[in-house]
Amino acid sequence: MDGSSTIRRKDLFETYHSVFGALTETNLIYMDYAFKHWCTQNNSIKANILEIGFGTGLNAIATMKHSSLSHVLYHTIEPFPLSTDIIHKLNYGKLLGMEKEFESIHSCPWEKEERISPHFTIRKQQSTAQNTDYHDDFYDIVYFDAFSPDNEPELWTESLFSKIYTSMRTGAVLTTYCCKGTVKRLLKGSGFEIEKLNGPKGKREVLRAIKP
Q1: Mean pLDDT over all residues of the chain?
Q2: Model confidence over 59-105: pLDDT tens digits?
Q3: Which of 8, 157, 173, 206 has its CA 20 to 30 A from that of 186?
């Protein structure tokens, strides 16, 4: 445990983040394996990021914390936003020394671009990932952080992965915590090159997919 909060969906019997440490999980899967990896592979000073599953906002605030780019455009999709009462119980802003910014990403309006800092603009979209229209050849990084295939099978499909693939630029990277054989086959079938990487505590392996 790293002292960071997590939430359990009682109806799904699934947590939003790892019970072994939400911040540790995010830092490894989405920061190290996706965001930082892409930054080291590219000379660009800007990045367009797509997140499937805004949830607690942890991936968004962690990206703000770790970014040294001149600008990040962060597009995140969430059909069921958390209540204000729950958000106020989360300690991610405090742990990262970004309480004001964490409050801002949750309090800013949905369905429009909002500049949180000179270097970070977010657009929160209340929708399902499968019903969202994506720009072609636009995203550099994708955080695929939906609930598990057992609970949200409609998201883990070749149809959705193909839509996301088309929306990504050449060389763009997608990471996800799920390393099931079916997910690997779906990603490959959509055109991705995939690799298995060591997971955080409690998760043996995770996936990184690249658009070649």
Answers
A1: 93
A2: 999 999 999 899 999 999 999 999 999 999 999 999 999 999 999 99
A3: 8
Q: What is this structure's pTM?
A: 0.95
Instruction: Using the structure block, give the residue that is written with the tokens 């399902």.
Output: 128
18 phi and psi angles, rounded to 5 deg: -65, 135
Q: Which domains does the chain have, with CATH numbers?
A: 28-210 (3.40.50.150)
First to last CA, the chain: 36
List the structure tokens of 158. 């070749």
Contacts of 37 (CB under 8 A, 6+ apart): 173, 208
Beta-bridged to residue 210, according to DSSP, are 173, 193
Query: Of the given ranges (14-18, 112-116, 121-125, 204-208), which has the lowest mean pLDDT?
Result: 14-18
Euclidean distance between CA atoms 158 and 112, whole angstroms: 28
**Two tokens, residue 162:** 């193909």
Select from 71, 82, 112 the least CA-distant residue to 5.
82
- How many CB atoms sit inside 10 A of residue 151's CB? 14
